[in-house]
Amino acid sequence: MRNKKVSKEGPAIAMTVANEGFKAMNEKERRILQKKYEKTQQDFENWKQKVIKDGRVKIMKDLESNLNQRLKKLEFDKPKRCIPPNIYYYQQTFKSYEGSDSKTKLQQSMKKWKTLSAAEKEPYYESVNKYNKEMIVWKETTSQDGRIEVIKAIKTLLTQLKM
């Protein structure tokens, strides 16, 4: 689970660095980049309109739908994602917190979660550990039967369709 947090921070850091670089530019350089951005946006909008007019949108949506169905069939035995430990803790302790609204209870729960020791948090991580073990087995199984390559190819195609 911690690797996902790192991967989510990467784009945020890149955007921060890019923003700082943009702020460091003089006004003339900024205008040049802004014009390029606006031209790219306009080109993209023109392309979208062209695709809509010539009927490729329906073909792309049908293809996306078929790929998603195929992906579901290939991932029929993939373990279901588990609830994050802090949310699981919140669900278990929701009624014990005072307050009339869910927001107050959530805030109290999150404060308490942050103060728990690692030993106290361990039971809430059991489902995450179980999921991670099941995913390792699933990846090995799909790798051995060859499904993993097809799954990767379909996911790549779906990513390209969404661009």
Distance between the amino and carboxyl termini:
27 Å
Mean pLDDT: 85
Low-confidence stretches: 1-6
Q: Radius of gyration over alpha carbons? A: 23 Å
- The helix/strand order is HHHHHHH
CATH architecture of the domain at 79-163: Orthogonal Bundle
The outline comes out as: extended
Largest sheet: none
CATH classification, class level of the domain at 79-163: Mainly Alpha
Q: What assembly state would you assign to the polypeptide chains in this entry?
A: single chain
SSE blueprint and pairings:
Elements: H1 2-24, H2 27-53, H3 56-74, H4 85-93, H5 102-115, H6 118-145, H7 147-162
Structure description:
The protein is mostly helical and 163 residues long. It has a domain at 79-163: High mobility group box domain (DNA Binding (I), subunit A, Orthogonal Bundle), CATH 1.10.30. It contains 7 helices and no strands. Helix 4 (85-93) crosses helix 5 and helix 4 (85-93) crosses helix 6 (118-145). It starts with a helix and ends with a helix.
